[in-house]
Amino acid sequence: MSPLPDRTDARPANPVLPGFHPDPSVCRVGEDYYLACSSFEYFPGIPLFHSRDLLHWTQIGNVLDRPGQLPLATAASSGGIYAPTLRHHGGRFWLMVTNCSKDGGNLIVTATDPAGPWSDPILAPDVPGIDPDLAWEEDGTCWCTVAGGWQVRIDPATGKTYGDPHRVWAGGPGAKAPEAPHLYRIGAYWYLLIAEGGTERGHGVSIARGTSPTGPFEPCPDNPVLTHRGTDRPVQNTGHADLVQGPDGSWWMVLLGVRPGGGTPGWHVLGRETFLTPVTWVDGWPVVGEVDLELPEVPWPLRPGPVEALRDDFDDAALRPGWISVRERSDAHCSTEERPGWLTLRARGTSLDAPDVMFTGRRQQHAAFRARALMDPGQGRGGLGVRLDEQHHYAIEASAEEIRVVARIGSLRTVVATRPAPRGPVTLTVSAGDPPLPHGPCTGPDVLSLGVEEADGTVTELAVLDGRHLSTEVAGGFTGRVIGMYAADGTVHFDWFDYEPLDD
Ligand code: 6LW
């Protein structure tokens, strides 16, 4: 793979990983931090990032990037890969995760280089739940703790468990969804950090400590140590956290949060994003700083790394790690080599409604953006779409005869606009969020405009559609918007794809 191009957008911000990057898990090795996120029904799975300052993150690969590691054929939308734990132990990286599909279950992969290759999955069928955590005692004994507060001893090299799972701590009385456990040895105590309240507006982070990794655990008197429930802060749903210590001894938390837009009840369209916040310790308990859109001050110089370019001319043989497809991506259906300098997509499913649609996209990471792609439909049909899931997407698609805008909102599917196609390639465009909508109780988060760029560079808008229908509050689930190219019939080619943030 060619090296990543120079940064095109070097300014860090909170969220440190904007867009659909939920359930962050982080570890440090020397001066290098590594972070992994959930990826659900998308292939490749589990984006893996590197940073040297906790603020700038560069995607260096995907943990599950071979079809044999990631069976997703039976994964529903927002099924598939949930909530990894990333750790470094004994000179290796270990990642444990759940594939929530019929062919899935809990699995462990290891690597010496986090950029890959990662091992084939080691299955752990006797681990009793989702959100698995791995923590080692000094003598090498390894404990796996999962959602609900269940824990079992495990050999991570084989996936074999020993003894019956026991419940260690399930959070505060009455709180729903005690999940995302992470167990750490810090000073004299073992700390068990969990999320509770569910991943929606009630989300929070709580902690308990004890002198043994298996409990008993004493809850922190100030639980939840982090929640934004009932506040009017711009960042909501804060929870699902992991802790990491800097080389200088400072402590940090990565966590997920969302940025709802529009009137009431508020809609978030970018998915659950990864934020960073400082942690201090008082009386042996963590005190978590405010999670804001402002970046926390870090006690070291900024050390930005390269980021993926916002435009892709498809000149490289391998696709950059930020491109994701729905469930499966074989060379036979998605290639930059079949027509060099173009991305060629060959249809499987016949629309974005299909679970096996051949779609290759990138996360929407900015509230306001414009995406454009130059497409040659040949004798096929395909387009540029914004996808939340099979039942929630907008697209502009072209064939040799016609250009049309298609909207799918729940059980409704409609062709919103049509016009005759020009001869040859056509530049399809989609934009959102610019200018922002005026405030109002019923105002949605944004509108999306879909159109065609004419030869003179002007855009002919074919449809303007309410963005709330492509939000998590309407569609449900755990993902966020992904913008990409797809084939719906035959074979189509894309010369380039360009994503332009319009936020500032
Ligand atoms: C994940 C759970 C959660 O398993 O959402 O916010 C679920 N937390 O820990 C899916 O990401």
Description of the structure:
With 504 residues, this protein is an all-beta fold. The protein has two domains: 25-288, 5 Propeller (Tachylectin-2, Chain A), CATH 2.115.10.20; 311-503, Jelly Rolls (Sandwich). The chain is built from one helix and 37 strands. β11 and β12 form a beta hairpin. The protein is globular and about 70 Å long. Bound molecules: (Z)-L-Arabinonhydroximo-1,4-lactone (6LW). Residues 22-23, 38, 82-83, 130-131, 179-180, 195, 199, 239-240, 256, 478 line the site of (Z)-L-Arabinonhydroximo-1,4-lactone (6LW).
Provide tags for this entry:
eight-stranded antiparallel sheet, mainly beta, disordered N terminus, Tachylectin-2, Chain A, 2 domains, binds (Z)-L-Arabinonhydroximo-1,4-lactone, 1 helix
User: What would CATH call the class of the largest domain?
Assistant: Mainly Beta
The share of residues in helices is: under 10%
Strand element count: 37
Please mark out the parts with pLDDT under 50 across 5 or more consecutive residues, or reply none.
1-9
CATH homologous superfamily assignment of the largest domain: Glycosyl hydrolase domain, family 43
Return the average pLDDT rounded to an integer. 96
How large a portion of the residues is in β-strands, by DSSP E? over 45%
- Cα separation of the termini: 32 Å
- CATH architecture label of the largest domain: 5 Propeller
Main sheet record: 8 strands, antiparallel
How is the largest sheet built, in terms of strand order? 3-24-27-36-29-30-31-32
Q: Structural class of the helices, strands and pairings?
A: mainly beta
Distinct ligands, ions and cofactors found in the model: (Z)-L-Arabinonhydroximo-1,4-lactone
Rg from Cα:
23 Å
Coarse morphology:
globular
CATH topology of the largest domain: Tachylectin-2, Chain A
